[in-house]
C-alpha cells in the first residue's frame, strides 16, 4: 500500500449534494429511478468507509514508523555505547602502558639497617653479560675489576655516550658500559686469590639476577670442585685448575647457546690431567727459552769484552 501523506481523520467530507457533484450524480443515476439525494447519501457513505480504511492504515503506518524510530534509536544507543566502551578500553590500555613505562621504585624494609659489608659492584658490561646469560670473565667480579669500575665511574663525565634500549625507553649511556675493559684478565691468568674472591662475587650476582636455581647449583658445585680439589697441592696444580675452570666454563656457555650443554658440576679428571700436561709443557718451554736467552746474553757479553789487544787471551 502506498504511503499515506497525512492523517485522514482530518480530511473534510465533500458536499456530494452540491452542484459540483451533479454531473457525477447524473451518471450514477443513469436510467434508474434513484434520486439525487439518495445518490449523495451513497457517496457520503462510500467516502466515510474509505476514510475509515485510510485512518486505520494511517494508524498502522504511524505505529510502524514509531517502531522503526525506536529500533533506530536503540541501534544508535548500542553503537554509541560500543564506541564509548571502545574508547574507555583504549584509554585504559594506554594508561596501563603508561604505567608499565613509568619508572618504578621498589619497597624497602622499615627499620632494617645496612649490612656490615657491601658487595663490590662489577661493571655494567659484566652485569649486562650476566643478564643475557653470556660468558664473562671472573676478573670483572674480583676486587681489582670492581676497583677499576669504581675508578672509571669517577671519569664517566668525560666518556662518550651512546644510545641504549632500557625496557621500552631509549637512553643515553656511557659507551664504556658496553665495552670490555682493556684491563680485563683471562680466568686462567688470574692469581688464585683473585679467582677465589671473584667466583664468590660472581655466584652472588647470578643469584641477584635470578638465574635458574638449577644453573646456580651446578656452578656452585663446579667452583667448589675447583677450590677443594687436592690437585692444588701439586706443583703447577693451581695453574692447571685455573685453566680447567676457564675453558670448561666458557665451553659450557657455548653449549648452552646450542641447547646441548653438559652438567658443569661433574668434574672431569681426565681433562684436568690433559690441561696439567699442557701447563707443564708450557713451563718447560718457557724454562728452555729463558735458559737459551741467558746463554745468548752471556756469550754476547763475553764477546763484547774482547778488545783487539786481548784477542789472544779471549780465544785461548
Any overview of this molecule?
This protein is mostly helical and 316 residues long. Among the domains are: 10-71; 212-293, no CATH class. The protein is 59% helix and 4% strand. It is built from nine helices and two strands. It has helices at residues 22-29, 36-101, 124-131, 143-154, 192-208, 213-227, 237-257, 269-304, 311-314; strands spanning 161-166, 169-174. A two-stranded antiparallel sheet has the order 1-2. Helix 5 (192-208) runs antiparallel to helix 6 (213-227). The longest helix has 66 residues, at 36-101. The protein starts with 21 loop residues before the first helix and ends with a helix. Mean pLDDT is 85; it is low at 309-316.
SSE topology:
Layout: H1 22-29, H2 36-101, H3 124-131, H4 143-154, E1 161-166, E2 169-174, H5 192-208, H6 213-227, H7 237-257, H8 269-304, H9 311-314
Antiparallel strand pairs: 1-2
Keywords: Coiled coil
Coiled coil: 70-101
Unreliable sequence segments: 309-316
The DSSP helix count reads 9
Strand segment tally: 2
Radius of gyration: 51 Å
User: How do the strands line up in the largest sheet?
Assistant: 1-2
Task: Choose one word for the global shape.
Answer: rod-shaped
The succession of helices and strands, N to C, reads HHHHEEHHHHH
Can you summarize the main beta sheet? 2 strands, antiparallel
Distance between the termini: 146 Å
Q: What's the average pLDDT? A: 85
Label the structural class: mainly alpha
Strand content: under 5%
Q: Share of helix among residues?
A: 55-70%
Amino acid at each position: 500500500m502506498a504511503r499515506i501523506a497525512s492523517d485522514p481523520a482530518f480530511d473534510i467530507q465533500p458536499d456530494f449534494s452540491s452542484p459540483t457533484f451533479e454531473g457525477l450524480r447524473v451518471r450514477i443515476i443513469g436510467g434508474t429511478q434513484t434520486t439525487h439525494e439518495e445518490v449523495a447519501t451513497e457517496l457520503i457513505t462510500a467516502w466515510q468507509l474509505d476514510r475509515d480504511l485510510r485512518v486505520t492504515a494511517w494508524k498502522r503506518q504511524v505505529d510502524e514508523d514509531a517502531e522503526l524510530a525506536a529500533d533506530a534509536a536503540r541501534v544508535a544507543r548500542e553503537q554509541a555505547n560500543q564506541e564509548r566502551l571502545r574508547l574507555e578500553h583504549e584509554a585504559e590500555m594506554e594508561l596501563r602502558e603508561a604505567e608499565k613505562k613509568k619508572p618504578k621504585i621498589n619497597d624497602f624494609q622499615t627499620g632494617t639497617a645496612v649490612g656490615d659489608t657491601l658487595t663490590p659492584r662489577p661493571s655494567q658490561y659484566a652485569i649486562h653479560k650476566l643478564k643475557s646469560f653470556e660468558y664473562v670473565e671472573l676478573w670483572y667480579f674480583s676486587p681489582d675489576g670492581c676497583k677499576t669500575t669504581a675508578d672509571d665511574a669517577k671519569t664517566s663525565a668525560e666518556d662518550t655516550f651512546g644510545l641504549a634500549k632500557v625496557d621500552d625507553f631509549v637512553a643515553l649511556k656511557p659507551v664504556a658500559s658496553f665495552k670490555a675493559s682493556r684491563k680485563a684478565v683471562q680466568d686462567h691468568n688470574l692469581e688464585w686469590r683473585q679467582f677465589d674472591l671473584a667466583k664468590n662475587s660472581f655466584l652472588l650476582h647470578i643469584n641477584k639476577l635470578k638465574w635458574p636455581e638449577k644453573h646456580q647449583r651446578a656452578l656452585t658445585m663446579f667452583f667448589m670442585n675447583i677450590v677443594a680439589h687436592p690437585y692444588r697441592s701439586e706443583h703447577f696444580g693451581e695453574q692447571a685448575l685455573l685453566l680447567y675452570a676457564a675453558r670448561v666454563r666458557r665451553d659450557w656457555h657455548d653449549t648452552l647457546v646450542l641447547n646441548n650443554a653438559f652438567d658443569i658440576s661433574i668434574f672431569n679428571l681426565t681433562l684436568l690431567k690433559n690441561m696439567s700436561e699442557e701447563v707443564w709443557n708450557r713451563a718447560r718451554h718457557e724454562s728452555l727459552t729463558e735458559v737459551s736467552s741467558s746463554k745468548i746474553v752471556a756469550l754476547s757479553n763475553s764477546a763484547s769484552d774482547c778488545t783487539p789487544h786481548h784477542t789472544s787471551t779471549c780465544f785461548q
